[in-house]
Write a structure and sequence with these properties.
alpha+beta, 4-stranded mixed beta sheet, 55% helix, 16% strand, globular
């Protein structure tokens, strides 16, 4: 089978929705397949297990959400009627290196970063701090960070903190 069909099958056969989301998002993130190719496969497979979930994940990856946590963050924004952020925004840091942010609420000058386990490694953590400083100093952005697992385990706290931050930064 072609890669797009294989990804859809693997996501459909995953043990749970988190696994299905991870397979789908990772395949787009790693450049194995385009969101449009996945969407085309599902267009032909009208009775595919988890079809609605997969279409939702494909739409999220097409808009820039490239991890399970980023897809979940977008779902929370939609579910709780928060503004929808721009995702994977490319910026140059103070050294000219290309960097990407997870979610930006442009009208509020707020950046949300969602940290998975890899952000606990000292080199990555240090790099994250430098990137956050660049966002604050060079771009005047407020940066709010969330641990990825909190999106599922403490989503009410995440939503409340994000809502409070956006309310304080509301444009005039």
């Amino acid at each position: 089978t072609r890669i797009a069909r294989s990804v859809i099958d693997a996501a459909s056969w995953a043990a749970n929705e988190v696994g299905a989301t991870a397979i789908t998002a990772a395949s787009v993130q790693q450049g194995l397949v385009r969101a449009n190719d996945l969407r085309a496969v599902l267009g032909r497979l009208t009775r595919q297990p988890r079809r609605a979930l997969l279409l939702d994940v494909i739409d999220a990856t097409d808009g820039g959400s490239l991890s399970v946590y980023e897809v979940e963050f977008l779902r929370l924004c939609r579910r709780f009627h928060l503004p929808l952020p721009s995702r994977q925004v490319r910026r140059a840091d103070s050294t000219g290196r290309a960097r990407f942010t997870d979610a930006e609420f442009d009208d509020y000058d707020v950046v949300a970063e969602i940290d998975g386990a890899q952000h606990m490694e000292i080199a990555t953590w240090w790099d994250d701090l430098d990137r956050q400083n660049d966002l604050v100093i060079d771009h005047g952005r407020t940066v709010i960070r969330f641990v990825g697992l909190a999106l599922r385990m403490r989503h009410t706290v995440v939503v409340r903190r994000l809502h409070d931050c956006l309310r304080l930064k509301r444009p005039d």
